Inverse folding.
């Protein structure tokens, strides 16, 4: 199935020509639940991994005795999907609640020492033929992303640790039949549900706080004007619906008012609709909505790093609905439909930056 991002509600470069200098291309990955095969681009799917190559392990010192058993996490998700997928969902039954209560995290791996190797979790596999804009080291045409499923890394000991493996697909002759899995994972949202991808390129514009101050202020002023115009349109629509009309009850009056409000055109905002696409993507820009912009990291070779991959919980939310693909419009508001991978790093998003000169130079991560 293809996925098509609707046209942006307006051409922001026509309003602010200076933005053409801050335009970028992102490839939205559009992960959706499915059954990816070994050579496919996927989130949480099987990897094209050589049978004779050791699977990457985390040996960094941190506790790995306590957490969720992967099988429990999958069972938990299956129960909830079943419960909320029924014709008239009432949530889990008593029997389901009892089973859910038994699938709790705990000290399920007391035998593991602080440096015992823990298999990394296969997060995503992206091939150059599926994902336009995916550029790796010379001779490589597939990127495999793995992470340690304990948020116990980084300078504050609270981040997932990511391993990137670039390789050449044709070099993999015998594929590893089944990958090792950790006994427990530190956070349930570290375990992806298998998703197929449907990559699509879109135009983005730089995060607002990284634009020149003048441009930033002009956009903010324009947004205020947009909002005022929209409020005016709502008032007018409500007046039109309620003036010189008499309603039999106050409830009927209120209902007419709500209908009129919904009819007024929604306002397009720079942040929500015109700059950065939500969801998993390759390339494009990072959104620094929680912390403000992080300093542009430089690679050890001196080159400013560029955004390789965005791993994020939500494919859309209330503020970014205009990005929902045409094919998914009926899923807006469906419980869980905007969280297809079940993954959520940090407070929702992980950015992986790499060196544009040589992607084999060490990467950096940032979290939002
Ligand atoms: Zn680890
Ligand atoms: Zn470099």
């Amino acid at each position: 199935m293809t996925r098509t991002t609707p046209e942006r509600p307006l051409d922001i470069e026509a309003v602010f020509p200076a933005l053409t200098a801050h335009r970028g291309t992102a490839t939205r990955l559009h992960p959706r639940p499915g059954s990816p095969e070994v050579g496919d681009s996927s989130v949480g799917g099987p990897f094209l991994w050589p049978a004779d190559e050791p699977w990457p392990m985390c040996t960094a010192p941190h506790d790995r005795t306590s957490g969720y058993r992967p099988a429990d996490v999958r069972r938990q998700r299956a129960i909830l999907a079943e419960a909320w997928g029924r014709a008239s969902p009432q949530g889990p039954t008593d029997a389901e609640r009892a089973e859910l209560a038994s699938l709790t995290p705990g000290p399920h791996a007391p035998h593991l020492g602080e440096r015992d190797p823990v298999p990394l979790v296969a997060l995503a596999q992206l091939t150059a033929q599926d994902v336009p804009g995916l550029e790796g080291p010379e001779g490589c045409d597939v990127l495999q992303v793995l992470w340690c499923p304990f948020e116990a890394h980084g300078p504050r000991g609270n981040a997932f640790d990511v391993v990137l493996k670039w390789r050449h697909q044709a070099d993999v002759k015998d594929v590893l039949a089944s990958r090792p899995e950790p006994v427990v994972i530190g956070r349930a949202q570290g375990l992806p549900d298998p998703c197929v991808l449907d990559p699509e390129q879109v135009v983005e514009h730089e995060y607002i706080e990284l634009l020149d101050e003048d441009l930033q202020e002009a956009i903010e002023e324009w947004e205020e004007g947009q909002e005022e115009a929209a409020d005016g349109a709502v008032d007018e629509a409500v007046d039109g619906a309620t003036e010189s009309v008499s309603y039999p009850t106050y409830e009927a009056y209120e209902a007419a008012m709500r209908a009129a409000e919904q009819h007024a055109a929604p306002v397009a905002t720079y942040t929500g609709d015109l700059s950065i696409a939500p969801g998993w993507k390759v390339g494009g820009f990072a959104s620094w909505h929680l912390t403000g912009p992080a300093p542009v990291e430089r690679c050890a070779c001196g080159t400013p790093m560029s955004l390789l991959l965005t791993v994020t919980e939500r494919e859309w939310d209330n503020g970014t609905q205009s990005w929902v693909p045409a094919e998914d419009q009926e899923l807006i508001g469906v419980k869980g439909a905007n969280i297809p991978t079940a993954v959520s790093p940090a407070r929702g998003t992980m950015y992986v930056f790499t060196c544009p000169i040589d992607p084999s130079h060490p990467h950096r991560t940032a979290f939002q």
Observations:
- The longest strand covers residues 142-153.
- The chain has two domains: 12-68+105-207+276-367, 213-263.
- Residues 58, 60, 62, 148, 150, 152-153, 161 surround zinc ion (ligand 1) (CB under 6 Å).
- Residues 213-263 form one domain.
